[in-house]
Design goal:
alpha/beta, Aminopeptidase, 2 domains, nine-stranded mixed beta sheet, four-stranded antiparallel beta sheet, 15 strands, elongated
Length: 407
């Protein structure tokens, strides 16, 4: 156990090797794995060193409270992010918000801030959806947006059942970790180059584009790759490949207001010399409006069905998750952001802040400049000076919230 709290630089250095692949330089911090468990243990250690009250629910969502007792019923303020990563992801997506939140508590204490409202530093599990396929799973459970009975049967790629890793309790929504939370502010590394273009180390999110994930199941007829004539095939790979190209074409026609990506594919029987019997692929689609998103997915589905009719295959499109448009609460950051001239920009990426906002908790986000503009990749980056500027910005926003009205 840490004898005293570590500063931002020391905390960041301690996290740097955890879950990092020597082969790729990327991070593998999937939920309910050894790497993610090590990170959560580190978080509890740092919270304890600061004298924070640590609470954890049945799925592993954790909040460390400053200025609260276990029986405290006052209106609360929450900050934080997540510690899990996509497969071979970057170092900053998620952990930067957690480390910065702890450092912001230290900075506020140095400034003499005494919270009239408890401030929590939260860590939500499975934000990326990289193991069980549902993004922001932890925050969705914490807010009651999804019920444990609806997700406990989810299985990862290895067949491991979520319910065998967590028990789902105690409580969710108003009865759980988020009881009394009246405001949430999340700091995150920017996933783009808008702040680079504007020459600003810190920015404010105006909202989140609507986005979702759809599973395409394409079935055909398995056969021999050498002996089956081309005209005799019912090849689902052709249907999938044409659909992937169509998704790219349709999103580009709508640019800059649409994104469409096939990033995950499973093939059966997955043999080099065999025509597949089935291809399952996942479409990630995002647009600037819910209407545009619905039109994009409908157009991709139509192209898939047209190609399936040509190929003699069958295609089924199943929505797996859908997040509507989010508009963040400007009053949480405007008193600080306005005088400092922080740029305001939308984000196309999903975040726990969007889930809490949709649940009725006023929420806001701060971004720290990413010089590469790359995310979900080992190339994701943030300069130390910008990270420290982010800590200061977060403390500037949280200070008035914990000593005054949270709304």
């Amino acid at each position: 156990m840490a004898e005293r709290p570590d500063g931002f630089e020391r905390m960041w250095a301690d996290l740097a090797p955890v879950g990092r692949s020597a082969a790729t330089g990327g991070y593998r911090r999937q939920p309910w794995t050894a790497a993610e468990a090590e990170l959560r243990a580190w978080f509890v250690e740092q919270a304890t060193a600061r004298g924070l009250l640590v609470e954890t629910d049945g799925v592993g969502n954790t909040v460390a409270w400053w200025g609260a007792s276990a029986a405290d019923k006052r209106e609360r303020v929450l900050t934080g992010s997540h510690l899990d990563s996509v497969v071979d992801g970057g170092a900053y997506d998620g952990p930067l918000g957690v480390v910065s939140a702890l450092a912001a508590v230290d900075l506020m204490r140095e400034r003499g801030v005494v919270p009239a409202r408890p401030l929590g530093v939260g860590v939500f599990v499975e934000e990326e959806g990289s193991r069980f396929g549902l993004a922001c799973l932890g925050s969705r459970l914490a807010t009651g947006a999804v019920a444990w009975t609806d997700v406990e049967g989810l299985r990862d790629a290895g067949g491991v059942r979520l319910g065998d890793l967590a028990d789902g309790g105690p409580g969710s929504g108003a009865a759980g970790l988020l009881a009394g939370v009246a405001a949430y502010v999340e700091l995150h590394v920017e996933q783009g180059r808008a702040l680079v273009d504007r020459g600003a180390p810190v920015g404010v999110a105006s909202g989140i584009w609507p986005h979702g994930r759809w599973r395409l199941d394409v079935t055909g007829t398995a056969d021999h790759a050498g002996t089956t004539r081309m005209e005799d095939r019912a090849d689902p790979m052709l249907t999938y490949a044409t659909t992937a190209l169509a998704a790219d074409e349709l999103a580009r026609l709508a640019a800059p207001d649409a994104r469409a990506t096939f990033g995950r594919v499973e093939v059966a029987p997955n043999g080099t010399n065999a025509i597949p019997s089935r291809v399952t692929a996942w479409l990630d689609a995002r647009c600037s409006s819910e209407e545009a998103l619905a039109e994009l997915v409908a157009a991709v589905t139509s192209r898939a069905e047209e190609r399936a009719a040509h190929d003699g295959t069958a295609v089924t499109v199943t929505p797996e998750s859908l997040s509507g448009a989010v508009s963040f609460e400007p009053s949480l950051v405007a008193p600080v952001a306005g005088p400092r001239g922080w740029p305001v920009l939308p984000t196309q990426a999903g975040h726990d802040a969007g889930v809490l906002s949709a649940a009725g908790i006023p929420s806001a986000m701060l971004f720290v400049r990413n010089p590469t503009g790359v995310s979900h990749s080992p190339a994701e980056q943030a300069e130390a000076a910008d990270c420290l500027a982010g800590v200061e910005a977060l403390a500037d926003v949280l200070g008035p919230l914990v000593v005054g009205a949270a709304r």
